[in-house]
Amino acid sequence: MTGNHKDTRITRRRALAVTGGTVAAGGLAVAGYQSAFADTSAEAGATADATSTASACMTLMSSVTEGPYYLDGALVRKDITEGKSGVPLTLRLTVVDATDGCTLVKGAAVEIWHCDAWGYYSGYTTANPGGSAPAESEDGSTADDSTYLRGYQIANANGVVKFETIFPGWYTPRTCHIHVKVHTGGEKEDGTYEGGKVNYTGQLFFDDAVAEEIFALEPYSRHSGSYTTLDNDMVYDGGGASSGLLTLKAVHKADPSQGYKGSLTLGIDPDAENTGAGGGSGGGDGGTPPGDAPTGTPPSDAPTASASS
Questions:
Q1: What are phi and psi of 210, to 5 degrees?
Q2: pLDDT tens string 236-288
Q3: Is there a contact between 243 and 58 (Cβ–Cβ < 8 Å)?
């Protein structure tokens, strides 16, 4: 998929993953976003969690590289946007123990990080995302260049975390994705999460048809070039949900700019340790960026980068 080309193929993966119906390009519209994503009630939420968990009991998630843009010290917070422009995305993840009948993992710390609408990561804002994109500084936001679009949430009694963010952009040579780690055994301290161990390192993926609709909108459309589809991505292995493919639902079926809900159950082994720094499938040499990936140096006041960065 490149430029304005539209892939009209209907695949089994697309039919399973996308539930939003036909969508059309339009300007960003944030009004009504909070109400559209509001929970109906605690009782209904608990029932839905129990139902979805029972039906989603699966094999272990496929662990992959953490990639070149990980930074330690992300903040514990629900909203990670910091004013970054983009199509709203509410991400709902449920953590279960896949080695014990998919029991809920209360207190697990889920950490995510991803690029902005033009393919830039906080901490690496001078890294070229490939193709043609404005400089990261031209987005006009007041986001902190060392912390935006990164954060932790702690799983509730139903094993659920929820993030408010934006639909990620893309960078060469990768498809659209969100990085994720699941930690257990640590605790919240000084606004971040300390201690414990990383049980799972992976990436979350988006259906190609939805990504193409989003990338036709502002501000995504200002980044032009060759976008890598799921089938051609170096990390996604085609395994569907167990490989990180999100279930997506449009807030408004006729207008993707209104935002999306993304959900997935993460089946982990709480006794395992997988930092993604030197193992896991996909992504080339563990935590080392591929040779043609963008490179950059975090600013001196950025959180400490991991060894693999």
A1: -70, -45
A2: 999 999 999 999 999 998 999 999 999 999 999 999 999 987 543 333 323 33
A3: no
